[in-house]
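Reviewer comment 2.1 asked that we show a complete input and output for one of the modelled complexes. We chose the iron/sulfur cluster case, as it is the one discussed in the main text.
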Amino acid sequence: MTQENSLWTKSTCAYCGVGCGIEASLDAKGELSIRGDKTHPANFGKLCSKGLALGETVSHEGRLLHPMIDGVESNWNNALQHVAMQFSDTIEQYGPESVAFYVSGQLLTEDYYVVNKLMKGFIGSGNIDTNSRLCMSSTVAGHKRAFGSDTVPGCYEDLDTAEMVVITGSNLAWCHPILFQRLKTEKEKRDNLFIVVIDPRKTDTCSIADLHLAIRPETDVALFNGLLTHLAEQKKLDSDYIQSYSEGFDAALISAQQDAPNTKKLADTLGVNEQDLISFYQHFANTKNTVTIYSQGVNQSMQGSNKVNSIINCHIATGRIGKPGMGPFSVTGQPNAMGGREVGGLANTLAAHMEFGDAQAHHMISEFWQTEQLATKPGLKAVDMFDAINEGKIKAVWIMATNPVVSLPNSNKIIAALKKCPLVVVSDCIAKTATTEYANVLLPAQGWSEKSGTVTNSERRISRQRRLLPSPGVAKPDWWIISEVAKRMGFSKAFNFLHEGEIFAEYAKMTTLNNEDGLTRDLNLIGLTTLDAKGYSQLTPQQWPVKTIQTETVQQRLFADKQFFTPSKKAQFIAVSLMEKKLDSDEYPLILNSGRIRDHWHTMTRTGLSSRLGAHITEPYVAIHPDDAKAQHISDNNLVAINSVQGAMLVRASITQQQKMGEVFTPIHWNKQTAKSANVCHLTNDDTDPVSGQPALKSTQVNIKKWHYHSEAILLTREILDLSLFDYWVKQKVEKGYLYRIADNRTPLVLSENLQSLLKNQQGKTLQFSSTDESQQMIYRYAFVQNQQLNNAYVASEQLSTQSLDWLQSVLDLPLDNSIEKTLISGIVEGKLAQGKIICACKQVGINTITNAIQEQGCYSLDSIKECTGAGTGCGSCLPEIATIIEDTPFTMAQQAITKSTVTLNGVEQYTP
Ligand code: SF4
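Response of the prediction step:
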């Protein structure tokens, strides 16, 4: 190992299910540098904007540093004793079903293993569920129905040899950027690669699509049933595969045919062009190497499991599974959703892919764990669990590393449930989340950079997450906290773990129970059962099954032998039909979709600490079609109220043709800590898929109304402020401080006075200026300087173009000079301050810099933008957005005359002047 290499520690990215390998190095100032791990087979050294910014998110800001009992600081011994006693007393009084654990895909596999062991093995209840229920439990259900096991059959490498890739229910470009980049590179290299995107929205993923099918929400089952029907009609089925290796085809086909009487009718149902539909079907029928990637757009639905099986049906029917370059491919949202599925984090699985209702499995696990209390039936799934809390059936809940108040549907009900629950324990690394507010006991857990263990990514590859930094306060690993509580509940022998490596070894052994050869269950880690401390410490990525330890990268596909884990060993077709969901309502005529944006993650507890990531999209918004906006007299950037039966939120309108009429989209990330009223889960109802229990988070009926207010302000501070007195506020992290956007029903003058009272400025220089603008509205400008540094500043008026004030984002980080003071008071922006909203987070290039390059330097291609501005030369996640800016930027006839060049992306013409 070279000296340079020895300074870098290999670990895994904290975010999505791609599971990219990172390398981290700590400098003398204590700052963490991050780079991609070139040897990791998930990303080969590449990282997206979120991964690259990991080093900026490890500050101790907002950390929970000590155990707290009823709001009072405690120590570990008292807190652990208190939790153990309260759980034991509740179980003694009301039985094991009266307690529950709600855990997270952010936990490492070792954490997951011990928490599952405690609940199912020793408390004796199945009441442990994970926020992965919200992410891909419909896929788990679909896999188990079709394959008899929760198995992702393929590898990322399949994208390199696929000739057709269907991306459905996934904005891969923003949610799994490194996989998207891999596919984009293939698209640039290979003319024969045909990409279809199926999504009601035109997202950045469409930038590489040959065909975009913007189907109506919730019609996916009909689309794939139509495909199965077409394959049968065109005699494009693999009859041998169907006959020899599968069961249930006839019933599935009959069901499919009922949804697809003819393509004309089907196209009407789906809301797509008939020719486009036929083109999709013909390409699928004629392209052997086809991969279908799918994600939350498929899973988060009342018919999520059926959608999954409708996709898998088409792959089984064509024998396109378990072979290079083909297969159904679920990509998970969270870094360790797969690890949780493996060890039994879901309420309806026992452990290590062994199931409830299997007497032999029950016996083996009882012996293995040396317990007589192993749960005999599945526990409550997430939504049902919180219903049971609300109904008083569950009296003690322990929530780990997740924020259900913000992420589960119908937040008001979740809050009511937590308020009623006699004991709410929350272990988290963050002190103030929407959920910790309702906790009786808070337990400080380690954060991503402090934890050590393993995670499994979407292609079944287990990677080490390594400890990079010491923990602040007395934060501890989750597995340690759980084990210590278990010991105090009387289960010392079973939880006497000294190190996470011991837990992993026990889990690896469990996968071999009656399965030494891996023929009973595909989840088999026999090659890792003999790992010693050194082996665990130095473990390189391993793709399961692991027969012998993998010293080189392997690419394994499951079901290559056409043997499945069903009783007959055959794959199962599942007969599914479109469930018409009535989505028409006079009062709530729009369908609200929700999802992630490029640079934020979940509830922003980490990404919200990075000013780079915060600069991409600075406010919660609702994307709305121009005609829907016009009907409500809404203009771009207006503040609007989104209302549903459950609740309301206030966000900024973003009018775009990328949204279909009648449908709107809003991101999931903002919550009480970052905005006054922008939690989408206040709006969503708690409908779930009847098979998987996964909530239907993508089709809430809403209306949208323009919100009228009397004043607006933009405020820059070095401190977090309590702005609850204002009607609307949103917080954005900027370098050295925060930028708040505020709107209120008070007059601008009163708003300005309120802001000054809140800021409590004393002993410094005040710069203040009030004037009227060209539309005769009063503008109040204020800045406070202390020790030659700007402390805070605001601009308030009746109406502000807050976007035109984006230059404020960088002011706190710049040396204060006369020109900045002048800009703060006059509002006239020059030089570096003028680059506008950041598009390229890596290179910090703003939209104005890009549009200037287009208009003034004639940069009409991505390559020339890269060359002129540096934008897009980092992780590349912003390239689709830059392509859209090139498309959208108006340019003059003179410029058209100068150039005949076209905007190209991946060799595909995007815009012809
Ligand atoms: Fe992290 Fe981005 Fe890789 Fe996902 S794609 S694991 S967020 S670097």
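The first strand starts at residue 9 and ends at 12. We note this here for comparison with the apo prediction described in Section 3.2.
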